[in-house]
Amino acid sequence: MVVPLAAQASDFSQPWLRSDRALVIDAYEYNPIDWQKLSTDKRIVGFINKASDGLPPPYSCTGNETETRLCKALFRRHAVARELFQTRKMVAKSLGLKWGAYHLARPGNPVDQANNFIDFAEPGPDDLVALDIEENDPTQWMSLEDAEEFARHVQRRIGRFPVLYTNGTTAKHIADNRDKYPLLSRLPLWYARYKPEIGMHFPKGNWQGYALWQFSSQANCNDRACPYRVPGTPNDIDVNVASMNADELREAWPFGGLLDVPVEMIASVPIPVTRQAGLAGDVTLSFAPVEKASALLALAGAFHAGGQQYPGRYGAAPESTRIAADHPVSDIPDSSAPRGAGQSFLQAISSYLTGFRDQLFAWASDAPPVGIDPATTATIPMGKTER
Fold first, then answer.
1. pTM to 2 decimal places
2. Residue 259 phi/psi, 5° resolution?
3. What is the sign of the dihedral through the CA atoms of 37, 43, 46 and 50?
4. What digits encode the pLDDT tens for the residues 175-224?
5. Bridge pairing between strands 128-132 and 238-241
6. Are 199 and 13 within 8 A, CB to CB?
7. What span, in angstroms and rounded, lies between the C-alpha atoms of 214 and 241?
8. CB 51 within 8 A of CB 101
């Protein structure tokens, strides 16, 4: 997958003024579009339309008269919005525009919402899919923890990940807590901020650049002034800029991969010099960075520390205990202690993690096994919502 790596400095300062930067429109069902006029702007490369909103409406209505009327109205709105969505999709593609869809995330089961989104949008292999998190407020919008599961389930169903749409505050929170949100923090970022300069406020973390920047909306566009006016659209239309030209954006679309994780260095150590060079004097010390311990290494270290502090907490592990289907405890090597009743289960797990870490490091020197991605191997219990 082609994903943005790092944006240039100019891409954080009114990049829409540059003629070589591609633009994308995003709209919802109440935005009127004059397609003939819109097609005259050759900088518009893509069109992203709102698809689903939270959980699907019920197909059958119960309750008193008022509740039934409201239920039926919600379903009619859902049906009309879906028909308009499919019509716009056909028109946009006929004009040569890239197509995308976004899901407005609400509180509620994230797997059911992901299924609702995919069933509504019916994304093709080249259609962008996006998760819209308006604010980091789980009482009003989907929680970030649920958003992780939403993104994971989208990947299960269509084989790729969504783009993450969110504002500067929420993006900064995810970037600052990327260990807590290992999947969200690696999704291509669709950044919403209506300021001409964003360099000082851009979230960073795993995001060295943005996939799209929503720079214009009803918040900063009116009859008197607007950052960019798209022909055939009203003032409340959302306009986005990419940190690439039109051909590059078409190649990168639909941004379905995960971003690489930058290597974090927490210290530097001096590189040793020979005794002869040191005695001769006039030595310039060079320093090498030390990589931050990986999560797996840290977990193994935690087991070691816990085992030393509470050596008998879990007692000895019986020979029949198994850590995984192919790894019985009796088969796990431990260089620090002989096997026997005296070895704690904690020590056995620690040894297993250390061995698994060594295997990962060995894989890193070559190509990783096909199909293995630690960010996507997590699962949830199978149930009626799984597909």
1. 0.69
2. -75, 150
3. negative
4. 999 999 999 999 999 999 999 999 999 999 999 999 999 999 999 999 99
5. unpaired
6. yes
7. 7
8. yes
* pLDDT digits 0-9 by tens, 248-300: 999 999 999 999 886 655 556 677 878 777 788 777 777 666 655 444 554 55
3-state secondary structure the chain: CCCCCECCHHHHECHHHCCCCCEEEEECCCCCCCHHHHCCCCCEEEEEEEEEECCCCCCCCCCCHHHHHHHHHHHHHHHHHHHHHHHHHHHHHHCCCEEEEEEECCCCCHHHHHHHHHHHHCCCCCCEEEEECCCCCCCCCCCHHHHHHHHHHHHHHHCCCCEEEEEHHHHHHHHHCCCCCCCHHHCCEEEECCCCECCCCCCCCCCECCCEEEEECCCCCCCCCCCCCCCCCCCCCEEEECCCCHHHHHHHCCCCCCCCCCCCEEEEEECCCCHHHHHHCCCCCCEEEEECCCHHHHHHHHHHHHHHHCCCCCCECCCCCEEECCEEHHHCCCCCCCCCCCCEHHHHHHHHHHHHHHHHHHHHCCCCCCCCCCCCCCCCCCCCCCC
Neighbouring C-beta atoms of residue 134, cutoff 10 Å: 16
User: Is the CB of residue 110 less than 8 Å from the CB of residue 146?
Assistant: yes
Amino acid at 215: F
Q: Which two tokens stand for residue 274?
A: 């020979």
